[in-house]
Structures are given as structure tokens and as C-alpha cells.
Amino acid sequence: xxxxxxxxxxxxxxxxxFVHPILENSVNAIQWLSRMESTHKVRSLWLLCFVHILQEAxxxxxxxxxxxxxxxxxxxxxxxxxxxxxxxxxxxxxxENHDQDLSSxxxxxxxxxxxxxxxxxxxxxxNMLVDECVPIMSSVPHEERVMAHGILDLLLxxxxxPQSPVTHLRALGGASQALDKFGVALFLEAVDExxxxxxxxxxxxxxxxxxxxxxxxxxxxxxxxxxxxxEGGNMDEIALVFVTVLPEVVARxxxxxxxxxxxxxxxDVECSLWPLRRALADVEETNPLDDDRVDPQLSPFLxxxxxxxxxxxxxxxIELRLKGSQCVIVGSRIQVSPENDLAKSFRMDHGNRNVNRxxxxxxxxxxxxxxxxxxEAANFFLPETAPSQRLRWLLTLKxxxxxxxxxxxxxxxxxxxxxxxxxxxxxxKTVWRPSRFVLWHNNRRSLWLSTIGExxxxxxxxxxxxxxxxxxxxxxxxxxSTVQSGSDGKLGQPTVAIxxxxxxxxxxxxxxxxxxxxxxxxxAYLRLEHLLxxxxxxxxxxxxxxxxxRGDLSSHTHLVEENAALRKMAASLNGDLTRLAxxxxxxxxxxxxxxxxxxxxxxxxxxxSAKKPNDRQYYVKVLLLGKxxxxxxxxxxxxxxxxxxxxxxxxxxxxxxxxxxxxxxxGVATYLPKISSAKGRVEQNICAAFAKPLLxxxxxxxxxxxxxxxxxxxxxxxxxxxxxxxTFLVVSLVNMEPLDAMNKRIDAMGSDTSRPIESKRFFITxxxxxxxxxxxxxxxxxxxxxxxxxxxxxTLITSEFVSES
Length: 805
Description:
With about 800 residues, the protein is an alpha+beta fold. The protein is about 60% helix and about 10% strand. The chain contains 29 helices and ten strands. Helix 7 runs antiparallel to helix 8, helix 10 (about 195-205) runs antiparallel to helix 11 and helix 11 crosses helix 14 (about 275-285). The protein is globular, with a radius of gyration of 32 Å. The protein starts with 7 loop residues before the first helix and ends with a strand.
């Protein structure tokens, strides 16, 4: 190396002498350069010269050449193509070279520095090209669109490679500059089907450990969503794409941490996603007063979008927890829920040594708003646009309810699945489907993929295993098992026949879940009856389209097959309804024969039968007061379903009710926690049985002496004196207020109207503390009618009524 020509001025002057010949010859040779393999020596050396000129030549001279290429025949597209070839060619430096010659060893030594310099130069050249050429090309719309597509494709390839934070920062800066120069409308038109891949990469970079990269990613997504809202008045389509690919991104990040040997338990899994959660919180906290990109009317939509993304992350973690001991991430078995020593000692102190191991492990996550998170993730998707994504999360919610023994909630979730399918069938040909990211799968297009897993040195923990794990979260393979992805990676379009078959399966399974719960025959009948009415309307519309069809024979045959599938599904629903009606008739006849047996709670009373639960539904009000455990102070993972000092209405699971009545009958309650202020034995046992897992969860952080369980809230005086040291867990049995319309339907079926099935209002009576002999009735109102797809809901309205005796 001649040291006389290594100063900055000398290198710039030497490079300036070769600007014209290198650029001209490269532009003219683009066709045969692109035909060479990316590892070809001639192509590598040629493009190294090209990149060296871009790095060392005077910027004024380069800008002049860029402008000259913007006139007909618009050779600027070839410059972009050269940059794209450079990005793919120099990925070879990511791969370890096992040759033993001196030049290879030296090249391997300088590869990290060389890769960063090359890709930094590509990003700088791209930014310069956008700055110089966009104003000129804007007068030729078609050429501007071609240029925008080429630049954005180039930047996508750069951000998709594992670069240093500096390079990623420059690439994201180039993307933000392109978005600003081209405008949101042209940006979205240019990326087209690649929008979901941009979403993947932006979300991935939002989980970067570099603060500057996360900040730039947040800035980019705010600009994109803000510009889309300003341009079209909504951001729904972009939000749909981001939320759809988010589970795959989350799973891939977890898998990459796993193959790096950084994950051994669920705590490590949760920690690996903290940067992404923080970045989403930054997007949500964007203030319209400080950022003119955000319209004040956009803020609520941004909040909904970010909360849904957080719920999706929660749901991925929940799916991993549901696997239990079978939770394996790229060959590594993960410990799902370690038991806390405080909770273990509490169970030993209370004589509960024979507790099921799986039940004890669940106490760590008892207060998690797992149902709410999965339900929120499902509700984000509409049946008309993304039914498969909605079904995917609803089926996860169903599995979650099954793991808790909540059969009626599982059945209600399956009914929501059936309604989703019914609403989606008329739009099945136009629903949006995601595709797999080729740069994460194809080793020929992304040479660096072979380096994944090199740290651990285990051959079966490479990119193939990472993407197999991630793909299962994009869409579970058993969701639409007969739909295959196309050669371009796009997931196949579901058909009417597939959706009809799925609807038949979920309705039959829903009926089974209702029967497992017991006493839900009338509700199951009403749900299926309403579903069948909706499906008959769909069948009538489809039959009209079939009658009006004047197309060719193949399209007519296809319509006939769809109509046959719809009618077969309707016949199956009719069969299920008939069997439920026969069962209701049988129950009514048995009731008439055995008239006189007492049952449950009469409207407005508090008397309980201590013999058997009679398949009725029980609900409790849960309230936490006093000293807060750490779980309720700050949460960096799944939030809590209970809000401190705010009551929630919860349905008591069948298992807890059966346990309470068995204890009431036998008079032995050694493994139930002690509860104070109860009004009667049955009520005491039901409240205690429901409170037991909550109490175990509190004992993960608190001692048993610092927790008070009761059915009545403490007085203000007690709360003021002991609230700093004692945690009060209040569990009170509440009565369901019947709905008149529902009771009329139940009465017509011959069922018992003294036990309402559906309601969103609950009440509890209490005596006045004064001598006035007045009775207080407190009414609690929730958002959705119980029973529903959630087993608990926070109280929205609390009303108190006073009556004088």
C-alpha cells in the first residue's frame, strides 16, 4: 500500500478520476453482472470498485452524475439496481471462510468492518439519490413509481440483514426520507405486497437493544400511520398488516434469543420482548401537541393499535404457557412456571400437601389478564377482512378456558368462532391473507441465514428451525389444514367448503362444552338457533347468486358445490338443534315428575341448598384493598385482570362449585382457606373455593398473616389503620338479575325461570349498620352479558338502592 495516497484528499482525487468510467461501465454491464452468482469473484471485485467510488469520490461530482441519469432513457433505475446487487453480493462477508490462504484470513479478519462500511455507503448513496432525483422524476409519474419501488426494495434488503446499529439507523433514516419525499400514497403503492415485510422489519427493529434504532423505528411508524390517516382518514389497512405479522415477529425474536443460548425459562422469554413493548408504549404516548404528524383525532386509533399489539404479545406468551411441560423453543425445553417458596409454604401451612402440581404452577399467573388479552387480540380482526386471524386467537382463548375447566366460556368462544365463519363466508374470496417473508427463508437470496445458530454450534438449531417455530405463530398449521401456501409464500385462500366444515366442527364441539358445564341446554339451543337464522340468510343469498349465474360450466359447477356445502352445514346445525330440543323436553318432563324439590336462589333471597348445586351458575364479586403486592404496582408483562380497589364480577367454575357443595354435605373443609364474615356454610364454601387460587397467588409475594379473606369489605376505620400492612381479599356471592326476554324464551322451553341464564346486572343485599332496619341493595353492571367468552369482567356501574322495612 502506497502511503502517499492514503490521505483523505488524495483518496478523493483518485476516486474522482474513476467516477465516470466506473459508473458508465457499471451501468452498461448491469445485465451480465446480475446473471452472475452473488459469490462470483468478478462480480464481487467489480462492485467493490463501484462502492469504493461512491464512498471516496467528491459528493458534488456524484450528485451531478445522479442528476444526469434522471433524463431519458432514465438510467437512474440501473444505478438503483447496482446498489441492490451490491447489497446481495456483499452478504458473502457474513459467511465464515474456511480457506487457509493468507488473503482469505485477512479478509475474514476485516469482514465485520468491511460489511459495515459497504452497507453504510449503500445507505448514504441511496439517501443522496432520493435527495437529488425525486424532485426531477416527480414530473414523470410512471418513472417515479418505478424508482420508488426500486429504492424501497433496496432499503428493505438492507434492513433485513443483521447489521450494526449505525447501519440500521442509516437505513431507517433513508426509509423515512423516502416516505417524506415520495409521500405516503406513493410509498404504499410502491411497496404494495411488501408492506407486510416492511412491517416485519420495523417491528423487529423496534425490539432492538439499541435505543437509537428503536427511536428511529418508532419515528418511522408514527410517520407512516400519521401520513396514512391524513391521506385517507384511517389507518385500518396498515394496522391490520402490522398486527397480523406481529405474532410471527415475536416468535422469531424469541427463537433467535433461544438459539443464542439466552433463554432458559419464561422470565427470559418475557425479558427478550421488553424493548418491543417499550417502543410500542412510545408510539402510544405520541402527543399531537408536540408532533404535527399526529392528528388529534388519530390519537385514539394509535392507542387502540398499540394496546392490541401489546395484547398480541401477551397472547403469544400465553400460547407458550399453554404448552406446559411440552414448551420447546428451537430444541430448548423451557420451564414455564416455577413455584414460589412463599406459596409453597402457605400450602404446607394450610395442610394442602396433595395439591396437583399443575394447579400450583398456575398460581404464578392467576392474576394475569390472559383471557382479556387474547379476547382483545381476537376482537381487533373483523370477520369480513381477516377471519383466519380472528379464529386463530379465539381458538387460543378456547384452549385457555379448557385449561382452567371453564366449559361454558369455552363453549361461548366456540360460538363466536361459528359466528365469525358465518359472517366471513360471503366475503371469503376477498379476505386478506399474509405471506411468508422470502428473505427470512431463502438461503440463496439471504446468504447470512446460514450464520444463525453458529454461537451454540448445534446443526439442528439453525434458521430452518427458527422459521419453523415462527411460522407456526403466523398461522397455526391446524387452523386451515387443507389450505397450502403458494410458491410465492402467500398463504392459500380458504374456500366456502373449508369454512362450512370448520363451522360444523366448532358448533358440535360447543354443544359438548355446554353439556360438560351442565344446565346450559337452553342457552345452547338459543345460541344455535340464532346462528342457524343467520346462516339461512347466507344460503338464500348464495342460492340467488346461483340462479342468476350465466357464466361458464366450471364457475357454475363451483357455485353448485359451494351451495351444497352450505346446505350440508345447515342440515348439521338442524340436527344439533333437534337433539337439544329433545333433551330440553326430557328435562321438562323429569321436572314435572319430580316437582317439589327446592332449587338454588330465589329472586331477591339468599337461601342456598346444601345438598347439590343443581347445575346453576354462581357469580362472585371480587375486590382487593389495602397493601399492594409488587404484581399490582408495576407490570412489565401481562397486566392484571383485577384493578386495585375496583370490583370485578367473576363466574365461579364448575369444579369450585362442586367442591364447595361436597364440603357442605360432608362437613369437612380442611383444604379450603378460612374466610370470615360469611352468611352461611354454602356461601362460605363457594366463596372460599373460588378465592383459594387468588389467595395462593397473593402468597407468592406476601405472608399468610398479612392477608385477610372475607365476604364483606373492611370498614373505613379498619382500612385506615391496617391498610398499610394488610391485604384484604373480599369475595362475595352476588345474584344475577334476570332478563325478561330471555326468561320468556326459557319459560316457553319448559325450563326453570327462577334461575336466569343471561344478564349483565348483578346485585347483593346487605343490612344497614344503623337501627333504621333499612335494607341496601347494591347493583353491579358489567359490559357484556354473562355467560360470555370471558369468565370475569370489571364493574362499569355500581348503584345502591335503600328500602325501608
